[in-house]
Amino acid sequence: MATIIIQRLNGTTYDLDALGFRVKKFDPPLTNWSYSYQQLGTYGASMTGAQASYLVIPLTLDITAHSIADYRLQLMELRRIFRSDEDFYVIDAMTPYVRWRCRAEPAAVSQTGNYWRASDVSINLDCADGFAESVSTTQDGIDYDHQLWGFGQNLPIGYTPKYTYSTADFVFYNAGNLPLMADDRPVTIRFTGSAPNGFTLTNLTTGQSLKITKAISSSDQVVIQGFIPLINGQQAYGDSNHGYLDFRTGDNKLHIDGTSNFNLKFETRFYY
Known about the structure:
eight-stranded antiparallel β-sheet, mainly beta, six-stranded antiparallel β-sheet, single chain, 1 helix
């Protein structure tokens, strides 16, 4: 079994162990929280904010080769795999359903004597997001049989969450460790249906509502992502109440008014 998979943004994947890079350590640290405080009087302070900072994930591997020429080729391959002019994903084969979006810091590689190897090559991987994300989105479906989802992702026991809806009242389940905010990791909501006077989508759990005031026909495509709704690909902020929707971790109870024949699709990844 592979230990660490590197996946480029174009979908190309590299199995480090299979390529001769023996992974010895991959240790994502716990979330790097930082806090700010306001001094209150002489003897105390009040927390005014908490932010999750980027992570530095240490990766240690050995380079193995069959000859000195092969060793040089391995170095070239390593440079290609960890090319960091763009982000890449790092996937631990023990949990193939989550991935880290990273870039590599500079790393020194030293050949071991006259042998065709380099041992304990340390590469620090900078993860700006500070969290892992699910490999799959909610529109891929919750499927345990094809390693799309797995243990540790907070999925409920006893029922499988759905993320396509056609009833006025429904539940959106946020399986991640983070809330999904309109200004940070927003959920993409796609509405198709008939709403002659527009429609209102309300998250009863957070008390937030977003109202589309323009008449919507069954041929229109409405997409809501963050603060700006789009109707048929055109910005429609002026055709709304300027509301937005956030989603807490766990169950979010939602209700839609103004339409009875519709389809809603919620698409997002979850973050851990």
